Amino acid sequence: MSKYITTPIYYVNGEAHIGHAYTTFIADSMARYEKLKGEDTYFLTGTDEHGQKIEESAQKNNKPTQQFADEISAGFKNLWDDFEISYDKFIRTTDEEHKIGVQKAFEVMYNKGDIYKDFYEGHYCVSCETFFTETQLVDGEFCPDCGRSTNIIKEESYFFRLSKYEDALLKHYADNPDFIMPRSRANEVINFVKGGLRDLSVTRTSFTWGVKMPESIKDDKHVMYVWLDALLNYITALGYGKDEANMRYWPASVQFVGKDILRFHAIYWPAFLMSLDLPLPQHIGAHGWWTRDGEKMSKSKGNVVSPREVADAYGVENLRYFMLREVPFGQDGDFSQRAFIDRINSELSNDLGNLLNRIIGMSGKYSDFEIDSADVLKYHTKECDAMNTVLDSLDAYMENLQTHRYLEELWKLFSIGNKAIEEHAPWVKMKEDKKDQALATVALVANILAKASIMLSPVMPKTTNTIADALSFTIDHESYKELIKYKKLLKLFNIKPVPPLFPRVEEPLMAEAPLAHPNVSEESVKVEDESKKEEDNLIEIGQFFETSLKVGVVVEAEEVPKSKKLLKLQVDLGEEKPRQVVAGIREFYTPESLLNTQVCVVANLKPAKLMGMISEGMLLAAKDEDGLCLVRPEKPKKAGTPIG
Ligand code: MSP
To answer: Which of 127, 271, 396, 582 could form a disulfide with 610 if both were Cys (CB 3.0 to 4.6 A apart)?
Structure first.
C-alpha cells in the first residue's frame, strides 16, 4: 500500500517560525521513515495564499497581492529547500491546476445538492477567516480563537450542507478510534459535532482574492471560502479534477496539523470528502504548540524563534532532533536554549558522538580500521538480543507518531554499546592477547551504531549519512532490509575517521529572548542590596514560575446551594475539557455576569474540595475595603494563554 503524508499549507502572511518548522520536520521524518521501509510514499507541503487576510497583508505591505504571495511563498520554499525537506510536491493554492481542481470539487458538491445558495449574517473574524455565533464570542464581540474584534457581515453565500454529515462523522470517529491522533484530542472534536453542526458558508462576496466559481455556476460575485479552497489542496496536489495522475496515493496516511486547526481537518475536511465520495484520511495527527521560555511567541513581544536563525546557530539536524525528542506528540513544547543545549551535550555529543569516536579510535588502534563481525555472535549474544528487542519496538512508536518515545528507545542502543565496552574492556583483552574478543566487542558496537544510524536517519538524515560513511556502508532501503528487518550484521567495516560530529555547546549561541519580567528582576536586585530583611521575603524568578497562571473563559456559572459565598464555575483553559473552579465570589458577582468573561486562573494548584465539590484552580482577585474584583486580561486572550 502506498503512503501519503501532508503538512498544513502555510499562510503567506508572514515568515516561517519554529511552529511551522516543527510540523514540517515531523512530516518529513515520517515520510523519510516510510521511504526507508520501502513504501511508495508521497509527501506534500505548500502555501495557502487566498482570502481576505492575505489580501489585507499585501495592502499593508503596499504590494500587489500576487506578488506578495509569490515572495512569501518563495520564502517558505527556500527555507524547506535549505533544510533539505524531502517533499515530493510544494503546492501553492494560486497554482492553476489547484484552482481547476477546487472548481471541479465545488461543482460535484453543488450538483449533488450539498451546496446551496442563501444569505448569511454573522460575526466574522478576518484573521481566522471564520464566522462565529453570538454565543461563541467572548464578551459579545471578540473572536474565541484569536481574541481579535469580529465584524458583523451580511452577505449572499453558498452553503455546504455540513449538518447532513453529522451522523456519518460521529460514526466515523466511533468506528475509527485512531482517526484523530493522539486519541486524547478526539473528545473535543466529537463534542463539537454532537453540539450540532450548522451548514458552512463556503463563498464570499466581500472580497475578490480567492478561487472563482466554476463556469457552470456562473456567479462571478462570489469567490470561494479560503478553508474550502485550502483543504482541497490535499487532493488537487494529486491531480484531482485534472489528470488524476497521483490519485492512487489517496487516502492520506497521516495529515499533520497543529491543534488549532484540528477542527477544520477532523470535521469540515472529512465532510467535504464524503460529499465527493472519496475515502477519508487514515489519521489526522494534531500536534501541540511551541512556546519560547514558557511564553507564547508573538511578534509584538519580539520572542518569535526563527528556524533559520536557530539552524544557523545550532545546525538544522540538531534542531530536528531536539524538537522531535523534546515533546510528546500532541502536547505543547517549550523552546529553551538551555534544554536544547542539554540534549546536544548529553544525548548527541556524549551518548552518540563519543561512542562513534571510541569505535573509530579502537578500530584504528587494534586493527588498522578494519573490523570483521565474524565473532560477534560468539561473544555477544546477550547484547545482540537486547539490541534486537529495542529495534523491534521502534516501529510502533513511529506509527503512533510518538517520536519522543521512538528516539528515547533508540537511545537505549547506545547504552547497550557503551555498557558492552565497559564490561568487556577491549583494551584489557588486547593486553591479555585475546584480540578476537576485543575485536568482537568493537564489531558489536560498530553494528549497533550502523543499525541505530539507519533508524535515526529519518530524523537526522545528513548526520547519519556521515556516520554511515565513517562505518563504510550506505543507508537506504537495502541496508534497512538487511540490518533491521532481517537482523543481519554488517560483515566488514572499513572505518574512516571523521571529526567529532557534535561539538559540545557551552553557552547559548543565540541572543536570549527579551526578558519577560524586567520589572521583577531589576527591582528586586536593587532592593536586595539595600535591605537584608527584605531579602528574606524575596523569591527567585524560578519560584515565581513554579506557579502556572493562565487565562480562562467562564463557560458555565452557577450558585452553590446553601452557600452564601461560593459560585461553581466551569472555566475553559484551552484544555480537553473545562475545569471546575469553586470560587468565593458570590457576594460580588452573579453567575450571569461571569458567563463568557475572561479570568486569570492559578492552574497548577492541587485540587481541593469545597463543600464536597472538587475545585481545580483558583481565580485571581483583588480585595480591599470596597469589596472584591476579579483580575482579568486587559484585552481578550485565548483560553489557556499563560500569564507571566
Ligand atoms: N493555512 C492554514 C492551514 C491550512 S491547511 C489546509 C494555517 N496556516 S498557518 O500558517 O497559520 O499555520 C500552519 C501550521 O503551523 C498549523 O498547523 C499551526 O498549528 C502551526 N503553528 C503555528 N504556530 C505554532 C506554534 N507556535 N507552535 C506549533 N505550531 C503552530 O493554519
So the answer is: 582
